[in-house]
Design brief:
By secondary structure, the protein is an alpha/beta fold. The chain has eight helices and six strands, in the order E-E-H-E-H-H-E-H-H-E-H-H-E-H. A six-stranded mixed beta sheet has the order 1-3-4-2-5-6, sandwiched between helices. Helix 2 packs antiparallel against helix 3 (90-114).
Length: 232
């Protein structure tokens, strides 16, 4: 979950959108879009592409991610590395994720929405549901995250665990990106099953997106999902 390089184009970024530089719409609340999926599903690439697609429509956008780049999120990333110096209790890690999420909402997401920006978040509540549930009681994981506001749309990027795992390994080989504690193929298989269950659970605003498509086609599918949900 934390192995992706989110510096530069992947870091938090706001734009007023094409054709409306510096323009905010404080009288219209923004929309909140979360992108979810296995490590290697392409959530970071899709988030970047979605920001661009929305900006071209003149939509002001904030791009962000979880774990966040705030103090709790930074601490989490250190514990997620497979080569972390010390192992942390799984329950404590789940609580850190929940705490980072609430802090991130209060400091970053909610102010942007209130100012009229759309927020595109690379991973959100569902990531805790499916990843922390691998080592903690799933019902408890949901309870400790129940204060986090639900997104207007959650797009789950679907890919086979083997395909996602192969992408993660290529990424690690290409740019020395450190692997994290969730990258094992066996873990990916269990997480994929939980994501699939979330898509079929009937949760509000949750849709599946084929992550095996070309990146541009994935973004097009997400934009269509936004339109189908009445957000555009």
């Amino acid at each position: 979950m934390a192995g992706v390089d989110r510096t530069g184009s992947g870091a938090q970024a706001a734009s007023a959108g094409a054709g409306a530089p510096g323009t905010l719409h404080p009288h219209v609340r923004g929309r909140f879009i979360a992108l979810e999926g296995l490590d290697g599903a392409g959530t970071t690439t899709a988030a970047r592409g979605l920001r661009g697609a929305l900006e071209r429509r003149g939509v002001p956008v904030l791009g962000t991610f979880q774990p966040s780049d705030r103090p709790i999120g930074v601490a989490i990333r250190g514990h997620l590395r497979a080569d972390a110096a010390a192992e942390i209790d799984a329950r404590a890690l789940a609580l850190l994720f929940a705490a980072d999420r609430l802090d991130h909402v209060a400091a970053t997401i909610e102010p942007a929405l209130a100012a009229g920006h759309w927020v595109v978040c690379d991973r959100y509540v569902m990531s805790s549901w499916v990843y922390q549930a691998d080592s903690c009681d799933p019902a408890w994981v949901r309870r400790i995250n129940d204060q986090a506001p639900w997104p207007d749309l959650s797009c789950v990027l679907s890919i086979s665990p083997a395909g996602a795992h192969a992408r993660v390994r290529r990424r690690a080989d290409d740019d020395a990106t450190p692997t994290d504690i969730y990258d094992a193929l066996a873990v990916q298989r269990r997480v994929a099953a939980r994501y699939e269950a979330c898509v079929t659970e009937g949760l509000p605003g949750v849709v599946g997106i084929d992550a095996t498509l070309a990146p541009a086609a994935v973004v097009e599918a997400i934009v269509r999902a936004c339109a189908d949900a009445g957000l555009l």
